[in-house]
Amino acid sequence: MDAIRYYLNTINIDGTIVIGEGEKDEAPMLYNGEKVGTGNGPKVDIAIDPVEGTTLLANGMPNSIATIALAEEGTMLKPGSSFYMQKIVVQERAKDAIDITKSPTENLIQIAKCLNKNVNELTIFVLDRPRHDNLIQELRTLGVRILLNAHGDVSGAVAASLPDTEVDVLMGIGGTPEAIIAAAAVKSVNGGMQCQWAPQSDYERDRMLIEGTALQQVLSLDDLISSDNTFFAATGITSSTFLRGVQFKANRIVTTQSIVMRSRSGTIRYIDGIHNLNKKLSGQSLPLF
Hints:
The chain has helices at 2-8, 22-25, 54-58, 104-114, 133-142, 153-161, 176-188, 202-210, 221-224; strands at residues 14-19, 35-36, 43-52, 65-72, 84-90, 123-127, 145-149, 169-175, 192-197, 218-219, 231-236, 247-248, 253-262, 267-276. By secondary structure, the protein is α+β, with helices and mostly antiparallel strands. The strands form two sheets. Strands 1, 2, 3, 4, 11, 12, 13 and 14 form an eight-stranded mixed sheet that branches. The chain has a six-stranded mixed sheet with strand order 7-6-8-5-9-10, sandwiched between helices.
């Protein structure tokens, strides 16, 4: 978080943190509404998760990434009191097949047709949570492959939107902030994504009703981020379904892999970094890379 904030403040943008760490983790920086950048340049909304999958990272498990999304000012959905959403994410070839108001079975039958696969050849990314017991049972009855993951909502959504990963579909309930971050990536590859509010407590539901949220509303990509000029970047911390994690080599050499995506151009860049920690100045905490 320190490193991201440091570098954001060197970029010629007039940025506002729309989704950050401050309120959620009671952190003193990267809080919702914080201004970052030099103040010069374009006005942008920023959604950020310095470590998506902190438990995964702590336990050395896959799918932990550092991620950030940018879009034109005023175009990112403000999540308000919503913490959770029902989601479905697919690649471009299947984007017209999804309808989050229909059953998982109905969706997967149509998705399989678009991908020229049998249904039982599909691989579905699902968060391993008790709230998904019924979904998992339905998927098992259908005979699809299931990737159960303890965390990694953004990783799963991005992997499902890319055409050459092991994930065909992301399904289930995950974080609202993560949906908005992932939307920037899905837009970059012209993928398909639908969401629906899914409050997981009476407190969350009551707060959303007070705010005037229509709980049955189906949210499209444009509802999550209305701009057609979005940026998404992620760096693997532990290896994920689409990025290698940080690797420590001999002689204090570290390698990283990142992905950078832009919706306006449709450009996807994979960046393999080689970092020599011996070049780091003694006693200097930033910058590291």
